[in-house]
Structure formats: structure tokens, C-alpha cells
Design a protein that fits this description.
The protein is of the alpha+beta class and 159 residues long. It has a domain at 43-151. Helix content is 44%, strand content 17%. It has 4 helices and 6 strands; from the N terminus they run αααββαββββ. Strands 3-4-5-6 form a 4-stranded antiparallel sheet, with helices on one face. A two-stranded antiparallel sheet has the order 1-2. A hairpin with a 2-residue loop joins β1 and β2 (84-87). The N and C termini lie far apart (70 Å). 25% of the residues are buried.
């Protein structure tokens, strides 16, 4: 073979992908996208569940810190945390006020609160409904019965 023929063969081999090869790659990418999309499409509910677990942990930590301050000085009636005054009940635990949520770092931009005399309910503000996707702080009922927490967040209730 002469030099010109070899050069022409090399140029022809480097011309690029054929139309068939490009179509096969696009079809494979389409199949992968179709199988992966449902997995990632519903991550909003899972993210909210994780957020509510974190919110519960923040409430528990704040309540434990308030109770620890009370144990150091049983005459106090409130504790200031993060610039927020958290009232303390007669058992040495935080009362059910929105101040507890604020002291835990659960701001109104991210979490809504519903307060009764015995409960503090927290829900993500990204949901239009306050039912289901909640964490409930139940106040202490005695010195031997500390506050309890109910995390009602599931991927079904948080969608």
C-alpha cells in the first residue's frame, strides 16, 4: 500500500459516530432516565420526614438543656437560649410555647407551630396542610414523667 492510501483510510476511520450509534446511545439514556426518574421524583416526602426527625432531635436537645439549667438552679422560672426566653413549668421542663421551637432553631420561615396548654405541634411550612406531617411535644406531667414526643411524619403524610 502506498502512503496516500494509508492516509485516506485513517481519515475515513476518524470521521465520527454513525447515526445508528447515536440513536442507540439516546435510547439507552432514555431507558435509564425512565427507570431512575420515579426513584428521584418522590424525594420531597422523604426529605420532609428527615427534616421532622431533625426537628424532633432539636426539641429534645433544647428541652434537655433547659431541664439541665433548672437542675443547676431550681429557683429559675425561665431560661434564655439563642436570645429566646423559654418558660419552665413546675416540673423543671419547658412549657409548650412557640419559644421552645425558636430556641431549638426551628424558625417560622421553615416550621409552623400550634400551641395548646399541654402540647406544642410543629409542622413544615412547605406543606399547605398541618395534618399528619408533625412532631408533637407533650409537656411533662410530673417530675418522674418527662416530656414525650410524637413524630407522626411518614412519606405518605409529608407529601
Amino acid at each position: 500500500m502506498n502512503k496516500q492510501t494509508m492516509h485516506a483510510i485513517r481519515k475515513q476511520a476518524q470521521a465520527g459516530f454513525t447515526l445508528i450509534e447515536l440513536i442507540v446511545v439516546i435510547v439507552i439514556l432514555g431507558i435509564l432516565a425512565a427507570t431512575a426518574l420515579p426513584k428521584f421524583a418522590n424525594l420531597g416526602g422523604s426529605a420532609r420526614v428527615a427534616t421532622m426527625k431533625a426537628a424532633q432531635g432539636a426539641l429534645q436537645t433544647t428541652a434537655a438543656s433547659v431541664h439541665g439549667q433548672y437542675l443547676l438552679n431550681p429557683t429559675i422560672t425561665s431560661v434564655t437560649m439563642e436570645g429566646v426566653t423559654v418558660p419552665i413549668d413546675s416540673f423543671g421542663y419547658p412549657t409548650s410555647t412557640a419559644a421552645l421551637a425558636l430556641a431549638a432553631g426551628l424558625t417560622a420561615a421553615d416550621y409552623g407551630t400550634t400551641v395548646t396548654s399541654t402540647t406544642l405541634t410543629i409542622y413544615p411550612t412547605s406543606l399547605l396542610s398541618t395534618t399528619g406531617c408533625t412532631v408533637v411535644y407533650n409537656v411533662a406531667t410530673s417530675t418522674s414523667a418527662p416530656p414525650s414526643y410524637a413524630n407522626n411524619a411518614t412519606t405518605t403524610t409529608c407529601n
